[in-house]
UniProtKB/TrEMBL annotation:
Keywords: Hydrolase. One of its GO terms (biological process) is acyl-CoA metabolic process. The keyword Aminoacyl-tRNA synthetase does not apply. It holds the Pfam family 4HBT. This is Acyl-CoA thioesterase. It comes from the Bacteria. Residues 1-113 form the HotDog ACOT-type domain. It comes from Erythrobacter neustonensis.
C-alpha cells in the first residue's frame, strides 16, 4: 500500500530551537496543517483543532531535511473527527527516512454560523 503525504515541506534555519535542532513545535504545527487538510476534506468544510494528544518524537531532523506528514482518520463523531498524524523526515542528500513525530488531533466541524455542525454521513472520505 502506498501513502501520499498530506503536506511536504523542507525544514529551514528559522525552524530550529536554540540548540540548532528542528523545533518540536514546528513539527507539531506541520502535523496540524496536514491533519487539518484531511479534516476539512472529510468534513467538507471548516474544521478546527480542539485537542492534540499522544505526541512522541522518536527521531530528530536537521535543517534542509524534507518533512512529509501522513494522516489517517481514526474515528468520527457527530461533529468531530479524530486523526492520527505521522511526520517522516528524509535526509536532504539521500533517500534515508525516519519517523520524527507522531500524534493525534481531534477536530470539530464548524458551520457558517461559527457553531459545531454535524458530519455529513456518506460524504467524502
Amino acid at each position: 500500500m502506498t501513502r501520499d503525504p498530506l503536506i511536504r515541506v523542507t525544514a529551514m534555519p528559522a525552524d530550529t530551537n536554540p540548540y540548532g535542532g528542528v523545533f518540536g513545535g514546528w513539527l507539531m504545527a506541520q502535523m496540524a496543517l496536514g491533519a487539518g487538510s484531511l479534516a476539512s476534506r472529510v468534513g467538507q468544510g471548516k474544521a478546527v483543532v480542539v485537542s492534540a494528544t499522544d505526541f512522541a518524537f522518536p527521531g530528530a531532523m536537521a535543517v534542509g531535511d524534507e518533512l512529509s506528514v501522513y494522516c489517517d482518520l481514526l474515528t468520527t463523531g457527530t461533529t468531530s473527527l479524530t486523526i492520527a498524524a505521522e511526520a517522516i523526515a528524509r535526509e536532504r542528500n539521500s533517500e534515508a527516512t525516519q519517523t520524527v513525530a507522531r500524534g493525534t488531533f481531534k477536530f470539530v466541524l464548524i458551520g457558517e454560523d461559527g457553531r459545531p455542525r454535524a458530519l455529513a454521513r456518506g460524504g467524502a472520505a
